[in-house]
Design goal:
The chain contains two helices and nine strands; from the N terminus they run ββββαββββαβ. By secondary structure, it is mainly β. Strand 1 and strand 2 form a beta hairpin.
Length: about 150
């Protein structure tokens, strides 16, 4: 079996001490994910961030800087590399509504209070402390390793 590696461009959108996240529900469990998705061949990561955020939640963003890289290694079948960009919130797209068409479990987007981010079910969980550090102006770690491994950057 050929091993697939997929690049995923994610947006970390911070405004007024809160961050924008997609709320996903599955069998009563709630998790939050950063908006974004797969990079297409011939597309830059920053273009992928803009396209995916617009498609998922109907929000226009401007990627500012690459902040985090985290991997998801799932056996031989899939290896995902997430590139997380700090992105400026420009506003709602012309349609003025949340779209969320790509996954039936994605129910809405929410602004999460960053002060309480440690308690939120944001995945990958390794991002929680690093996002707080970023907002507080502290040193962050860019490469966070495999999301399934122990967080040594505590």
């Amino acid at each position: 079996m050929e091993r697939k590696i997929r690049n995923s461009a994610k947006a970390l959108i911070i405004k007024d001490g809160r961050m924008l996240a997609i709320r996903q529900e599955d069998n009563g469990d709630v998790i939050y994910l950063l908006p974004g998705g797969s990079q297409n061949a011939g597309e830059t990561l920053t273009d992928a961030v803009k396209r995916e955020v617009a498609a998922e939640i109907g929000v226009d963003v401007e990627p500012l800087s690459l902040e985090f890289v985290i991997e998801g290694v799932y056996g031989a079948a899939l290896h995902r590399v997430d590139f997380v960009f700090l992105a400026e919130y420009i506003g709602l797209m012309d349609n003025n509504r949340s779209i969320l068409p790509s996954d039936e479990n994605q129910v809405e987007y929410e602004w999460l209070d960053i002060k309480n981010l440690i308690q939120q079910p944001l995945l990958p969980s390794k991002l929680r402390k690093q996002i707080i550090r970023l907002v507080e102006g502290e040193t962050t770690v860019m490469y966070l390793g495999n999301e399934e491994d122990e967080d040594l950057n505590g």
